[in-house]
Design a protein that fits this description.
The structure is a single chain. With 274 residues, the protein is mainly alpha-helical. It is globular and about 60 Å long.
Length: 274
C-alpha cells in the first residue's frame, strides 16, 4: 500500500468513524476499490488510535474532568459517600455511566470476535446492514427530542446506548448512528445523545485497539504510509465530530439515512451480481 492509498483509507476511517454511515462498511468498500484488501493489523490499529486522538482532542475538557471525577469518586467510595457525590457531580456520574455503557461492547467483542471477523470478508452483509443503519437513522429522526441529559441520565439509558454500541460491532451498522438512535429512542436530548455517543466511543475504540495488539505482528505497510494514514484519520475525525454535532443541533440526520440506503443498495446489488 502506497502513501496515497493510506491517505484515502485514513480519510475514510476518520470521517466514517464518527459520521453515521458505518466505518467498517466503508473501509471494506474502500479497500476493495483500492485493491488493498489486507492493510495489515498494525495499520488498522494506527487508524483506530488516530480516531481516538481525534475524539479525545475534541472533548478534551470533558475527558479531563471525567478522569478527575472518577479518581475523586474512588475516595468517595472509601469514605462511604459515593452515591450522594455521584448525584451532585455530573462529571463523576458521566465517568461511571460511560464505563457502564462500555461493558456490553466489551462482552460482545470478546465472546463473538471470531464470528464477527468472518462478516468482514465480503460485501453483502456490510451492504445489507448499511440499509438497516439508514432505517435506524430515519426512524430516530421521527422522534421528538427528549429531555434527558447528564443531570437526569440513568443507568437504564446508559445501558441502552451501550447495547446499541455493542450491536454496532457488526460491519455495516454505524456505531455513532446506532448509539445516537438508541439514545433518541430512550428519550435523550438529541445534542446530549450525540455527545454521549462520542464519549462512550473513547473506551470502545481504545479497547478495540488494545484487543488487536495481542495479534500484532510486523507491519506490512511502510512507515511513511502509516504516519500519513494516522495524521489524516486524526484531522478528518476531528472535523467529522464537529460537523455531525452541528447537523444534530441545526438539522436532521435524514441525509445520512438516504446516503446509507443509496450506497447500501448499490453495493448489495453489485455484490450479488458480480
Amino acid at each position: 500500500m502506497d502513501i496515497f492509498q493510506a491517505i484515502i483509507i485514513g480519510l475514510v476511517q476518520g470521517l466514517t468513524e464518527f459520521l453515521p454511515v458505518s466505518s467498517s462498511a466503508h473501509l471494506i468498500f474502500a479497500q476493495q476499490a483500492l485493491g488493498v484488501a489486507d492493510v495489515g493489523l498494525a495499520f488498522d490499529v494506527l487508524l483506530h488510535l488516530g480516531t481516538l486522538v481525534a475524539v479525545i482532542a475534541y472533548f478534551y475538557h470533558d475527558v479531563i474532568e471525567m478522569i478527575k471525577g472518577f479518581l475523586s469518586s474512588l475516595i468517595d467510595l472509601k469514605e462511604g459517600k459515593f452515591i450522594p457525590e455521584i448525584k451532585k457531580d455530573p462529571y463523576k456520574k458521566l465517568a461511571w455511566l460511560t464505563i457502564l455503557a462500555t461493558i456490553p461492547v466489551g462482552v460482545v467483542g470478546v465472546l463473538f470476535n471470531d464470528i464477527i471477523e468472518e462478516m468482514f470478508t465480503g460485501l453483502t452483509i456490510p451492504a445489507f446492514l448499511l440499509l438497516i443503519t439508514g432505517c435506524l437513522l430515519y426512524a430516530s429522526q421521527r422522534m421528538n427530542s427528549g429531555r434527558i441529559n447528564v443531570t437526569n441520565l440513568s443507568v437504564k439509558e446508559a445501558l441502552i446506548m451501550g447495547c446499541g454500541q455493542a450491536i454496532a460491532i457488526l460491519p455495516g451498522l454505524s456505531r455513532s448512528g446506532t448509539t445516537i438512535a438508541s439514545g433518541l429512542f430512550a428519550g435523550l436530548d438529541k445534542e446530549f445523545a450525540a455527545k454521549f455517543s462520542f464519549i462512550i466511543s473513547i473506551p470502545a475504540i481504545l479497547g478495540a485497539a488494545v484487543f488487536q495488539l495481542k495479534d500484532l505482528g510486523s507491519a506490512n505497510v511502510e512507515m511513511g504510509a502509516c504516519i500519513a494514514g494516522f495524521i489524516v484519520a486524526v484531522i478528518s475525525g476531528y472535523f467529522a465530530i464537529s460537523f455531525l454535532l452541528k447537523i444534530v443541533r441545526e438539522k436532521s440526520l435524514d441525509i445520512f439515512a438516504y446516503y446509507c440506503w443509496i450506497v447500501g443498495m448499490i453495493v448489495l446489488v453489485g455484490s450479488l451480481i458480480i
